[in-house]
Design goal:
Layout (H helix, E strand, L loop, with lengths): L3 H16 L9 E2 L6 E9 L8 E3 L4 H4 L6 E3 L15 E4 L4 E2 L10 E4 L4 E2 L2 E5 L2 E7 L5 E7 L4 E4 L6 E5 L3 E7 L7 E7 L4 E3 L5 E7 L2 E9 L4 E8 L6 E7 L3 E9 L4 E8 L3
Parallel strand pairs: 1-6, 2-22, 7-10, 9-15
Antiparallel strand pairs: 2-17, 3-4, 5-16, 5-18, 7-8, 10-13, 11-12, 11-14, 14-15, 18-21, 19-20
């Protein structure tokens, strides 16, 4: 079985292929574009739905569970009414020049609200800052591993913290404050041709230079492998933290013509 470190290393390697090495990322250049095209598309689910993943809310319930749901969905697989898969990262490989970075601010700002990470999937440019905040009047500690390693306590509400994401790749986020259901992912991108699907599974990559590309759909994975022991930093008690299956990727080719829109459709399944 592949370890978490191995999974992160594999995907980091995939990202390096997508945009150059971490040391050589200056190979991406912003250039003036004319007659550029657009890629739009969808990511949809096919086949039976996997069992949803949820954990009991067993700490700070007044803050973490104000509506008394008792459990929290882990948000590992969100499928809309028409089968669209949200929170899938779609990106182009081997891009060395093009438009400036313009990722949505909502994907570059992480809030901790009702003991939940918002958003669940973040998208940050390499060498750019990720801003973080806690709206909760309880202690959270953001623990990152992968392409960035930070352990950041949030003892007070609404005090924003920023950290620069220096290396491209995947960053796992969890709470070391005992809220084991909290989980999210940061994609640190070496070029700007990345997008995250919305609740209907749609995505768009704009201002793409004409040419043929390999396009990848990445999903964090939706299976719970096991639980492992961890320490609640506040209480120093042993807790059980979920361990998830490895991310999944699908790949396609797309040709972008001048001033045209290309359409790409991905189909995900549990097979």
């Amino acid at each position: 079985m592949m370890s978490t470190a191995a999974k992160i290393g594999l995907f980091a390697a995939l990202l390096l292929v997508a945009g150059g090495s971490a040391a050589g990322q200056t190979s991406y250049h912003v250039v003036s574009l004319s007659n550029s095209g657009t890629i739009t598309g969808t990511v949809k689910w096919s086949g039976p739905l996997p069992r949803s993943l949820a954990l009991p809310i067993n700490k700070d319930v007044q803050v973490c569970d104000p509506e008394s749901h008792k459990t929290r969905d882990l948000e590992r697989l969100i499928i809309g009414p028409q089968g669209g898969v949200a929170n899938t990262v779609v990106f182009l490989k081997n891009v060395y020049s093009g438009k400036p970075f313009n990722f949505p601010e909502s994907r570059r700002f992480l809030d901790q609200k009702s003991c939940r990470y918002e958003p669940h999937i973040l998208l940050v440019a390499q060498d750019a800052a990720l801003r973080m905040n806690s709206s909760d009047p309880v202690l959270h500690t953001i623990h990152m591993d992968g392409a960035a390693t930070y352990n950041l306590p949030f003892p007070f509400t609404n005090q924003a913290v920023s950290r620069t994401m220096q290396s491209p790749g995947l960053v796992n986020i969890k709470c070391n404050g005992g809220h084991v259901w909290m989980n999210a992912e940061i994609m640190v991108a070496p070029h700007p041709y990345y997008a995250v699907t919305d609740e209907s599974g749609k995505f768009e990559l704009a201002d793409v230079p004409p040419g043929q590309y390999e396009i990848v759909a990445w999903h964090e994975g939706w299976s719970l492998l096991r639980q492992q022991a961890a320490i609640d930093l506040l209480t120093q008690r042993t807790i059980q933290r979920p361990v998830f299956s490895e991310p999944r990727t699908w790949q396609n080719t797309v040709t972008v013509d001048k001033n045209e829109t290309a359409v790409v459709k991905f189909v995900l399944s549990d097979k």
